[in-house]
Amino acid sequence: MGVECSALQRIAVLCLAAVAALGTAPAEAQRSQGDGFARMELQSAGGRHAYARVRFPDGTEAERFILRPGDCPASTGDCRADRERVEFFDSRSRIGPGDEVWYAWSLLVPGDFPRPARGGPPYTLGQVHQFGTSGPELLFTYQADGYLLKMTDPTRPDDDPMRPLPDFRLVDLATPAQMTGRWTRVMMQAKWSRGGDGLIRVWINGRPAWRYDGPTTNANDPLYFKYGIYRAFVSRCGGPCPEATVYYRDVRQGRTREEVE
User: Which of 128, 163, 189, 234 has the highest count of CB atoms within 10 angstroms of its CB?
Assistant: First the structure.
């Protein structure tokens, strides 16, 4: 194709002009490549651009998500609530308090991914949410400082996503320089509990990044995993937010570490 790539791009398999889309069906008709989930469903405004399976020049495959201004699914009420998204979520998850679960995913943030301004809308690239009225337990967000893990207070209901409680924990996982143009592997162990036996362990590229012991959920509702791109408070962009593209591969959920490695 005559595509010129820098050394870093060749290593990261990131000659984006040469990425071939494997699926051309509307986004909502596409199926998640995630493994170990009950049933993944796509929350999307329905554009063909939103989701596709792609192949990189080295033959490896990935899932590509593209979020454009106005991509707010009618089913989520996002257009009325200052939010945009294209995300898969495990719609039939029955994971709840008392369960120990392992999660893993590889994430590639391209060099042209919009770096959020301070005070602007962060990009959520992975989260654990719960059914019911309370909000997410964990958000993996891409902000001006890089990839961060945000944990909500596991002892207080957080039932208004546009008026979230103060962060209970905010953990730096990787800087933009460490992530841009290369695959980042995230692995997490979670024991979901409303008591002191709960725990969370996070590894980035095989190295321990964070550990926490204590309550991990504030309700008895089932919890489910989501991945793709989500941004809230889009009005902070001062106009249409920029288009954003991100890639995932090897998204897995299991009961043991071996099931997700």
Answer: 128
Q: What is residue 58's DSSP assignment?
A: T
CA atoms within 13 A on the CB side of 18: 15
State the first-to-last Cα distance of the chain, in angstroms, to the nearest integer: 34
Q: Which two tokens stand for residue 169?
A: 């924990």
Looking at the whole model, is its pTM more than 0.85?
A: yes
244 DSSP β-pair partners: 67
Closest by CA position to 137, among listed 156, 162, 118: 156
Which H/E stretch holds residue 105?
Answer: strand 100-108
Give the amino acid at 51. Answer: Y
pLDDT in tens, 185-215: 999 999 999 999 999 999 999 999 999 999 9
What gap in Å lies between CA 104 and CA 20, rounded to an integer?
25
Q: What is the pLDDT of residues 93-140, one digit of tens each?
A: 999 999 999 999 999 999 999 988 888 899 999 999 999 888 899 999
110 within 8 A of 9, measured Cβ to Cβ:
no
CB–CB of 33/251 below 8 Å?
yes
DSSP codes joined into one string, 133-149? SS--SEEEEEETTEEEE
